[in-house]
Structure formats: structure tokens, C-alpha cells
Amino acid sequence: MSILVIGSVALDSVETPFGKREEILGGSATYFSIAASFFSKVNIVATVGEDFPKRYITLFRNRNIGIEGLSVSPGKTFRWKGRYDYDLNTANTISTHLNVFKDFKPHVPRPLRDSEFVFLANIDPVLQYSVLEQVKRPKLVACDSMNFWIQNKRKDLERLLDKIDILLLNDAEARQFSGESNLIKAAQFIISFGPKAVIIKRGEHGVLYFSKGSHFVAPAYLLESIYDPTGAGDTFAGGMMGFLSKSKKLNESAIRKAIIYGSIMASFTVEDFSVNRLLEISAKDISNRYSHFRKITKFG
Amino acid sequence: MSILVIGSVALDSVETPFGKREEILGGSATYFSIAASFFSKVNIVATVGEDFPKRYITLFRNRNIGIEGLSVSPGKTFRWKGRYDYDLNTANTISTHLNVFKDFKPHVPRPLRDSEFVFLANIDPVLQYSVLEQVKRPKLVACDSMNFWIQNKRKDLERLLDKIDILLLNDAEARQFSGESNLIKAAQFIISFGPKAVIIKRGEHGVLYFSKGSHFVAPAYLLESIYDPTGAGDTFAGGMMGFLSKSKKLNESAIRKAIIYGSIMASFTVEDFSVNRLLEISAKDISNRYSHFRKITKFG
Known about the structure:
The structure is a homodimer.
Chain A: E1 3-6, E2 10-16, E3 19-26, H1 28-36, E4 42-49, H2 54-62, E5 65-73, E6 79-84, E7 91-97, E8 117-120, H3 125-134, E9 140-144, H4 147-152, H5 154-161, E10 166-170, H6 171-178, H7 183-191, E11 197-201, E12 207-211, E13 214-218, H8 232-246, H9 252-269, H10 276-280, H11 283-297
Parallel strand pairs in A: 1-4, 1-8, 2-6, 4-5, 8-9, 9-10, 10-11
Antiparallel strand pairs in A: 2-3, 6-7, 11-12, 12-13
């Protein structure tokens, strides 16, 4: 069951209270695909510039991540520069240079059009929609979005919602889209536009999953040290979609387990800069942390 | 297994985005005792003024809450006036009139000195300590505190910590006491002063329980409407201590269950002003919500 992700592959410069790194591997499709690669074959659709380091291409290849849809465009790679203060929940953007990403028009190579699991990372909803026009009949489509698109491309986002299965966004964005401060009401409002489910990400407070008339509350895995929260949301999505792609059924029980796997993958990502921690861990580390998660949330 | 609570019985005036109430029944011992009364016999040690409405005394009596230790002092009852904005997590105090509570010296009547479960609600740690000098050999002592005492009576609070089993405080207070921004480290620091466990309250994000080398993460029960968060923390403590007082063992498994019962009781309190919602519910409502809580947090 292969997974397709459309998003960004970028070079990030990040500063947190615990350190500073320049031009490290980043981007939504990067975090997503490395997390998902622990479970299934993933293919990236994205674009980078001619300056994109070869060693990162090798990194994707070594993890069996498909880069047939990763095009190299004339110009420079997308760059993001940001800072986190002690409140690690909020990223302060210092600069964004879209570079080659500015004219990105996702093109899904023919062999990838029958992908069964599709993740539309946070880009213009018009482009996200164009991907759905290219793929055939995916089993599950999940989609991320953000305040900028809710504000500036609301109609396009609404049109997209009717075509997807799961929308992911954070609590402030759910409130913004719905005009409801209560998250149960906000989620039900969003579901009225068509998606089967909404996942509300709350950073260190975990995630809420809503389907029509049902919900699931998952705390985040508690950590002793968080170095860099960049990519946590996309890693979460990668772990979740990865687990689902291996699951026999796509019912709520599978989705709940997938959400915990997503949380676990995100808990590793934030323990170091870039994808460094994800590159260190093994399947055993993931299953150990899953067992520990069960242990610390269990009650009679 | 009777429970003893030392705290305040007050008249509150509260304004939230959803309404306004004047001179309604409030105070930490009030919320605690009504929540705990669903499980066990509770006795209050507190003081009120001569103006305290008789109907509230009747209310305590009707719920079999012991008021032998509730003295009537010359003067007026403790009054608190506060406002909540849309961020219901933060109370903005408009005025506090301690009145008869200013000279409150907790006196535990002789028949209550062998109480097995003792809750020291948030008052001066010197007074909390004086209660422990009066009671005999309680099975379990839990204690609440706040930023004001951490700042102004730190030594007294440290002395108290060595005598109690469970400290309850919110996340900001745990960070303030420990100087650690990470809550795992903050909790372990607090435990080094003597308590067996620390419970960190995170409002709508639930609670964290820490004992030496172990922890438990409990989300809050999701609600469609929250009217007034006043008293949620003391209600939580009441539900928790109430459940524990009926439990055969006081091991971590029992404490985890008790924490969920505490969260459930608090979820009722915030659904209306004062203790109104608690007065409406039955044991069946509590067990239904407990079952639902299990359902919405379960994963494979």
C-alpha cells in the first residue's frame, strides 16, 4: 500500500533555547516521508533547487523513499528561518524564501497515480485540489492546512474539504475556520463540509480526533527534553498514515492506534533538530515507546 | 473512611462570557466536600460570618456533610469576586474580602482527629501544617497550594511537603516552585522534598500524576459548554479523595482511577455556576460519564 505525499522539501535555519542550526533538512514532505518510511513505501511529490545537497537525496534513497516525483527546478531550494522561545508551541518566522517552491505545480508521475494513501501537506488548497484530480481512486486522503489559507482561500479550502477524508489542523485554526471557541462544535462544523474526520493538533497537549458523533482524546507523549518542535505535525501525519497503510481495516479502532503511532513518531522528532532523531531510531524504539504510552495512559 | 477538608466556605460573585452571578456559594471546602459527598462522609473545617445564608447550611446537612468544624465567627463571610474571559483557564480577581477568614485558625474538633483522609485546600502552609499537628494518623494527606505561598512562604511550604502524600498544583506553579520548565523534571524536584506524588493540573488539558519514577497522563473530559470554571480544581480533589476513601488499596492503580473520577466530577462543576450542576447529578450520571471517558480515551 504505497503512500503519496505532496508538500515541501526545504532547508531550514532554526534557533531554539537549546541551540541553533543553519540550512538543515526540513519541509513538510521530508518529515512526513521519513516518519512514514518506518511503516511503508512512500513517494514524494515536491520540488527543490539546483543547490539542494546531494547527500539529502541519498538519504531519501537509502530509506527507500521514492523521489521520482521530486523535481529539481532551476534556482534555489525553499528556505525557512525561524525561532522558538521557551514556549516551544509557537514558531516565530524570521524569513521565508519560497524560491523554486513559488512556482510549484504538483505533477504526479503516472506510476504514482494509483497510490492508495495520499497526504496533502500544507500548501495552497488550489494545488492540493489539483493533486486529487491527478490521482485515481485513493483509499484515504488526509490534508493539512493553516490560518493563511483559511483567511485567504476559504472557498478553495471548502471545495477541497468535500473531497478528503481527514483534515488536520491546530486548535486555533479549527476555531478560526468555524467561528466556534468550543472544539467539539468547531470540529462538527468542519465535518459538515464533507470530511469524514477532523484531527485537531494541540502540540504538547496531544490531539483530538472527531468523526461524526464520536471523538477520541489522545494526550501527547511526555518528554524530558524537547530540542526543536519543527516538523512535529508532519511527522505525526507520517506516522499516522504509515500505520494506516499497513492496517487491514480503516475503522476508528485502526485510526486511534494510528494517532498514537503518529504521536510517538512526533515525540522522537522534537528530541533533536531536523530529522536527526528519526534517523537514529529503530522499529524497536517505536514499539517500546508505544508500549510505554499505553502504560502511562492506562486506568481501570 | 471519613474525609476531612480544611479550606474556605465563601460567597462568590462571578462573571464569565456566559453570564453573571452575585453572592453564590463558593470556596474550596464547599466544592471539595460536595464532590466527595458522592463517595463518602466528609467533614468540613472552615469558618463563615454571621451573614452566611442558612439555606447553604441546610444544603451541607442534606448531603450528609459534617459541619461540626464549620464555625460561625463575628463578622462577614469571605467574599471573592472574579471574571473569566473567553480563555476560561485564567481567573481575573476583581476583589477578595477575607473578612472572617482573615483570622481563621483551623481547629479540628476532637471526634474528627482520627479522620483517615485529609485534604488541605489552598490556605497558608503554616495553617495547613497546624492541621496535621491536630490529626492523629491519617492514611492519606493531599494538599493544594498556589503561587502566592510559593513566593512568600516557601520555607513553610517545604516543611509541609515532607508531611504530605500528594501535592496538587497547576503547571505554572510547578515550574515556579522548581525553576524547571519541563514538567517531568519539575515534578521529580518537588518529590525530592518528601511527598509521594505530585498532581499537576492543566485545566482543559487534564492532569499529570507523578510518583517517584512513574507517571500517568490523563486528558480532561471534553465538554460542549463550559459556563464557569470556578472550583474545578477543588472539585477534582474532592472526587479523587472521595473515590480513594472507598478504595481497598491506595496503590497507583487506585490513584489513577481516582484521578479520572476527580476529572469527571470537575467536568460537571464547570457546566454551571457555583455547585449547581453537582446538586443536579446522580451516581448514575457519574458512572455514565466514567464509562464514556474510558470509551473516548481507549486505543488498542
